[in-house]
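User: Fold this one for me? It's Peroxisomal trans-2-enoyl-CoA reductase.
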Amino acid sequence: MNRDLQGRVVLITGGGTGLGLGIATELGLSGAKVAIASRKEANLNNGLTHLRSRSIDAFAVVADVREADEVAKAVDSVEARFGPVDILINNAAGNFVVPAERLSPHGWTSVVGTVLNGSFFCSREVGRRLIQQGRHGSIVNIIAAYAWTGGAGTVHSASAKAGVLAMTKTLAVEWAQFGIRVNAVAPGPVETEGASRQLWADPDERERLLAEVPMGRFGQVEEVAQAVHFLVSDGAGFVTGATLTVDGGESLPHARLEVVDKLRKNPS
Ligand code: NAP
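Assistant: Here's what I get for Peroxisomal trans-2-enoyl-CoA reductase.
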């Protein structure tokens, strides 16, 4: 494997599970020292066991990204262990399907707090330190394609991800002069344990969702992780404010696909 991230220090929020753990593994196998942060020690311990079993230099810190002071302490402890953070991946999120009129203020605040506030608190903490230290760095925000379109059933997540998209572009411009690149990855449906449980637990719903993906399958965790790897690599040195969509075409208009398929079967 290409060790192009040798010695870089990476912080991944929500890095103990699902896509976060996949990203941690990809970047760790590329030579990075990997710190993972989330609320539940059990998730972090499982993540650490996995990462260390792959000989990755890994460290975990408990932090709720909704709390700015916990974020600051988490970054302090990563610095104490590995040195200054070079790369931040804002991956932590919560989500569940609910009609908007039934979403409680607590549900709204919790998801928006994790996704939008959390991504800003972490970016601010890492960005501020990079600027003070005069060091270059890279941030990748994990969003979702419904940041552009809205997402019926997930008004909290869609609104928060749209905010993170705006934040990505804003910070990309503000921090370009400091050599800090800020980009986003928008995954389509990937069968992580968290997403499957919260978003398509019903088998019919799962099938319906899959039918909306022109490539006809779920994405793989590794496919998202490799997109993140590209964006944090030196090969993307002139890329900032961009979003790399990794969704098998799900977010592209495909209303006429059925008609096209019918015509293919009956060419005359
Ligand atoms: P997941 O395994 O449920 O990941 C969510 C992670 O966020 C967990 O590790 C969780 O750990 C952490 N987290 C939640 N609230 C937190 C908080 N307040 N503070 C710190 N950490 C917190 O789900 P996933 O599918 O891997 O999703 C990862 C990212 O990909 C999310 O941003 C999601 O929106 C995005 N995404 C996923 C899909 C998909 O189909 N899987 C599609 C589009 C976008 P703790 O519980 O330990 O805190």
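One thing worth pointing out: Residues 107 and 217 are 30 Å apart (CA to CA).
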